[in-house]
Amino acid sequence: MTTLSRPQKFTLESLYLPIPASLGEDGPPAHGVKLGLTGRAGSSNLVGTLQLDPNACTLNSFGDREMCTKIAIRSTSVTATLMPVPDPKGLHRSYYMLQGEHLAPLTALIVDPQHQRHYLKCNDTIVALFPDDGA
User: Fold this and answer.
1) How confident is the model at residue 2 (pLDDT cuts 50, 70, 90)?
2) Which of 41, 56, 68, 78 measures 20 to 30 Å from 4, CA to CA?
3) Domain assignment of residue 2, yes or no
4) DSSP string, 83-122
5) Domain assignment of residue 1, yes or no
């Protein structure tokens, strides 16, 4: 009898981006990005939600967001598909093609095997993502 692994969920988020990133085909660029994905361990397909926060904020001396504009955060369902792209640096990173409505083509999630470096890549834009600390 085979035991199915439970779906695992992980959430990644960016720090505040003083220079906003354009990851969508339309809408304002994002000062913050949050990506939540769910899938079974070792799965080549993950599903989840990408949130793009266009709000400009002031920062305190620790870099925490203080006063922010009040623009609606855009949320879109996404699918992340593991692609057979060899890592040119030999770091064993995984390349997931990210697809979703209004998401720019060629958007990818790069996953570090040690879970220390994750980032979204969209054309020449790179957004570093970190595990969501719930704050």
Assistant:
1) very low
2) 78
3) no
4) E----TTSS--EEEEEEETTBPTTEEEEE-TTSS-EEEEE
5) no
Q: Sign of dihedral through CA atoms 77, 125, 20, 115?
A: positive
Q: Angle at CA 79, nearest 5°, toward 78 and 82?
A: 145
Structure tokens at 57: 């904020």
User: d(Cα 11, Cα 39) in Å, to the nearest integer?
Assistant: 12
Residues spanned by the domain of 45: 8-131
Residue 33, strand partner residues:
52
Q: How many domains does the chain have?
A: 1
Give pLDDT tens digits for 57-80.
Answer: 999 999 999 999 999 999 999 999
Phi, psi of 76 (to 5 degrees): -140, 145
**What pLDDT sits at residue 134?**
62
